[in-house]
Q: What sequence folds into this?
């Protein structure tokens, strides 16, 4: 897995989950991010220009909160039936030439890479401790091998997930 290092291509296309506040500030003024509710209401009414600093990315906040309050089985169903179709619609609307970025403030703690299956899971804490949702399988339709960690600095720190600032997939299918 080759990381995205000091390369900002992830803010121009594909889908990313980011958790580094400094990286978020480089992409968008926080008050211009849309809530998960606003994102869900955009289907079929996508804006002509996107609110990121370069107008090529939409940053969505609130996914983490929704995941945390839903039971794992409900979260999995919600991601598959509601969020994934929106991601695909966004990608189709902008012909893969804009980025969809989900801000996950505690992503480093909640999103784990399972190297034996090369999958990414959402790890729950109380009250669902020990439960997991296979977000890689759901969001990236089995193409999680194409997911690249976003890091800043030199590529030699990519092996440690603690150095990752987020995850990027170039195209969702």
A:
């Amino acid at each position: 897995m080759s990381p995205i290092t000091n390369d900002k291509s992830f803010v121009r296309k594909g889908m990313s989950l980011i958790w580094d506040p400094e990286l978020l500030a480089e992409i968008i003024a926080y008050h211009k991010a849309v809530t998960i509710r606003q994102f869900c209401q955009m289907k079929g009414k996508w804006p002509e220009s996107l609110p990121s600093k370069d107008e090529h990315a939409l940053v969505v906040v609130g996914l983490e909160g929704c995941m945390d309050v839903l039971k794992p089985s409900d979260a999995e169903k919600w991601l598959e039936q509601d969020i994934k179709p929106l991601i695909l619609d966004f990608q189709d609307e902008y012909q893969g030439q804009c980025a969809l970025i989900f801000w996950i403030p505690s992503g480093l703690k909640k999103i784990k890479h399972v190297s034996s299956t090369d999958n990414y899971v959402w790890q729950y804490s109380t009250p669902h401790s020990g439960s997991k949702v296979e977000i890689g399988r759901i969001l990236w339709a089995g193409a999680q091998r194409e997911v690249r960690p976003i890091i800043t600095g030199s590529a030699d720190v990519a092996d440690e997930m603690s150095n990752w600032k987020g995850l990027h997939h170039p195209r969702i299918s």
Remarks:
- The two ends are 19 Å apart (CA to CA).
- The helical segments are 21-27, 36-41, 63-69, 72-93, 107-110, 135-140.
